[in-house]
């Protein structure tokens, strides 16, 4: 595992047997916050963000691409701390703990409201991985609307209440499966199972995370898992509940990553 603390506190290398699952754009090597401010670009790597998207995207610059303070906690753990992001209203901490004998990674995310007003925020993990693989998402068949998943549409922004068929997508054994190739698509599910899986290069990349059936997921369109695929990369996006965060209040979210060899 390699973490870039100089530009957004993101994971840029997460590998098994030398095979990195994270999407890399070599043209971004060495680029920092000032470069992004001069000419914005979509940063590569395993990024971490906050929603609701329309609220936070214009104001998350410092946390998204700024430098983070790095501390080595022990042989397997690194802690990153952001500068107080006055526009976003948050000071953030990320702790990465890699299992000593496997490719299991625990990521603890904390955010404290450093503003003087109540903020509406949720954790929004945005991990870019290489395209060409197959994504697996659990479905919630208790949902009577949209068969447990929905698709994002643009111009104007809206959710497709009856998603149109897509040859890259199929539903089997209670799972939504998607081939990460071709044109741009963004979709997600309501499931409370708390996992996402991605198969590529003979590996299985699995994320697990807590979900809360009584939680408010309105900030992520009531979705717990989102994905975005454009042919260049696919983005795996677990979401936490949406919080009304009072001044001085801290919220947290934990993700567990695992890379394993695909069984023959």
Number of helices: 3
Q: How would you spell out the order of helices and strands?
A: EEEEHEHHEEEEEEEEEEEEEEEEE
Strand order of the largest sheet: 6-7-8-9-22-18-17-11-15-14
The counted number of beta strands is 22
Task: Indicate the CATH architecture.
Answer: Distorted Sandwich
Walkthrough of the structure:
The chain has a ten-stranded antiparallel β-sheet with strand order 6-7-8-9-22-18-17-11-15-14, with no helix packed on it. Strand 7 and strand 8 (about 90-100) form a beta hairpin. The chain has a single domain, classed as Beta-galactosidase, Chain A, domain 5 (Distorted Sandwich). About 35% of the residues are buried. The mean pLDDT is about 95. It is globular, with a radius of gyration of 18 Å. The chain starts with a strand and ends with a strand. The chain contains three helices and 22 strands. The protein has helices spanning about 35-40, 55, 60-65, and strands spanning about 1-5, 10-15, 15, 20, 45-50, 70-75, 75-80, 90-100, 105-115, 120-130, 135-140, 150-155, 160, 170, 175-180, 185-190, 195-200, 205-210, 225-230, 235-240, 245, 250-260. With about 260 residues, it is mainly beta.
Report a brief summary of the structure.
The protein is mainly beta.
Q: Any descriptors?
A:
single chain; 264 residues; mainly beta; Beta-galactosidase, Chain A, domain 5; eight-stranded antiparallel β-sheet
How are the elements arranged and paired?
Elements: E1 2-4, E2 10-13, E3 15-16, E4 19-20, H1 33-38, E5 46-51, H2 53-56, H3 61-65, E6 69-74, E7 77-81, E8 90-98, E9 104-113, E10 119-129, E11 134-138, E12 149-153, E13 158-160, E14 169-172, E15 175-179, E16 185-189, E17 195-200, E18 203-208, E19 225-229, E20 234-238, E21 243-245, E22 250-261
Antiparallel strand pairs: 1-2, 3-4, 5-10, 6-7, 7-8, 8-9, 9-22, 10-20, 10-21, 11-15, 11-17, 12-13, 12-16, 14-15, 16-19, 17-18, 18-22, 19-20
């Amino acid at each position: 595992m390699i973490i870039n603390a100089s530009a957004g506190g993101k994971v840029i290398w997460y590998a098994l047997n030398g095979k990195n699952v994270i999407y890399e754009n070599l043209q971004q090597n060495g680029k920092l916050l000032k470069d992004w401010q001069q000419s914005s670009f979509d940063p590569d790597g395993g990024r971490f963000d906050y929603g609701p998207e329309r609220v936070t995207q214009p104001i998350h610059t410092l946390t998204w691409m700024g430098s983070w303070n790095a501390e080595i906690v022990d042989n397997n753990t690194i802690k990153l701390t952001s500068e107080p992001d006055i526009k976003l209203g948050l000071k953030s901490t990320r702790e990465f703990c890699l299992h000593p004998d496997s490719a299991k990674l625990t990521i603890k995310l904390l955010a404290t409201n450093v503003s003087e007003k109540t903020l509406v925020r949720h954790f929004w993990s945005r991990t870019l991985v290489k395209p060409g693989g197959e994504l697996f998402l659990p479905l919630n068949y208790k949902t009577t609307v949209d068969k447990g998943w929905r698709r994002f549409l643009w111009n104007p922004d809206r959710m497709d209440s009856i998603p149109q068929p897509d040859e890259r997508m199929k539903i089997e054994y209670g799972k939504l499966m998607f081939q990460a190739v071709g044109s741009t698509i963004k979709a997600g599910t309501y499931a409370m199972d708390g996992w996402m899986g991605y198969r590529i290069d003979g590996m299985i990349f699995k994320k697990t995370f807590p979900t809360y059936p009584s939680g408010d997921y309105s900030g992520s369109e009531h979705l717990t898992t989102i994905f975005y695929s454009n042919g260049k990369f696919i983005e795996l996006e677990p979401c936490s509940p949406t919080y009304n965060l009072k001044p001085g209040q801290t919220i947290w979210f934990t993700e567990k990553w695992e890379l394993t060899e695909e069984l023959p």
